[in-house]
Amino acid sequence: MYVITSRYSVEYLPIITNNTRTKKMSEITTKNFKSKLASVIKSAKTQRDNVQSIISFGLSHFKQHEDACYLTQALNAAIGVKSLPTVTLKDYIKEHANLVWQKGKDDKLQFKKEGKDVKVTMPTVAWYEWDGGKHNKVTTDMDVMAQTKALLKRIQAGLKDHKVKDEQAAKNVEAALKVVLEA
């Protein structure tokens, strides 16, 4: 595929994809760009809605049969898909059912019932709109003071445990950070 890289130059850039079936269909041009973009967006929305349906089915099955096999299969499959936030999905499922994610007898990760009784609350909010998903939240502002406090805490712990390469430099940085935090 040829791409205009500046006003006067054009370079050949290969399409990177793992799917050999779509290599011929993957060529993007100025004529089909908007169509390809709309297709990607539609596909992503369909995918996330399908994941929601699978989770809801798995929760219903767990509620009726005390069997979390479908939730386990869903999360294990999602682990292989880099575009799905598996930690968020796991936390979302655990929020709606009394399950823990742990290694089973065969050393494979799976959901296990926590406690004696099955407790399931069916979701009212989709996983991708859920506020509990800490790992896929986009943060635009950095809290400098919180980062400074965290760095100070790490340096102090390193000094206490004698796990600092340059102890004098660590002490100097520690003193400087304390001054910044007190100001």
Shape: extended
Low-confidence stretches: none
State the major sheet.
Answer: 2 strands, antiparallel
Question: How many helical stretches?
Answer: 5
Calculate the terminal CA-CA distance, rounded to whole Å.
Answer: 55 Å
Element-by-element helix/strand order:
EEHHHEEHH
Task: Specify Rg, calculated over alpha carbons.
Answer: 24 Å
Mean pLDDT: 84
Strand order of the largest sheet: 1-2
Q: What share of the residues does DSSP label as strand, in percent?
A: 5-15%
Helix content: 40-55%
How does the helix and strand content classify structurally? mainly alpha
Q: Can you lay out the helices and strands and say which pair or pack?
A:
Elements (H helix, E strand, L loop, with lengths): L1 E3 L5 E3 L20 H33 L3 H11 L6 H11 L2 E5 L5 E5 L30 H17 L6 H16 L1
Antiparallel strand pairs: 1-2, 3-4
Helix pairs in contact: 1-2, 2-3, 4-5
List keywords for this structure.
mainly alpha, two-stranded antiparallel sheet, 5 helices, 4 strands, extended
Q: Can you describe this structure?
A:
With about 180 residues, the chain is mostly helical. It has two domains: about 90 residues, no CATH class; about 40 residues. About 50% of the residues lie in helices and about 10% in strands. It is built from five helices and four strands; from the N terminus they run ββαααββαα. A two-stranded antiparallel sheet has the order 1-2. Strands 3-4 form a two-stranded antiparallel ribbon. β3 and β4 form a beta hairpin. α1 packs antiparallel against α2, α2 packs antiparallel against α3 and α4 runs antiparallel to α5. It is extended. The protein starts with a strand and ends with a helix. The model has no long low-confidence stretch (mean pLDDT about 85).
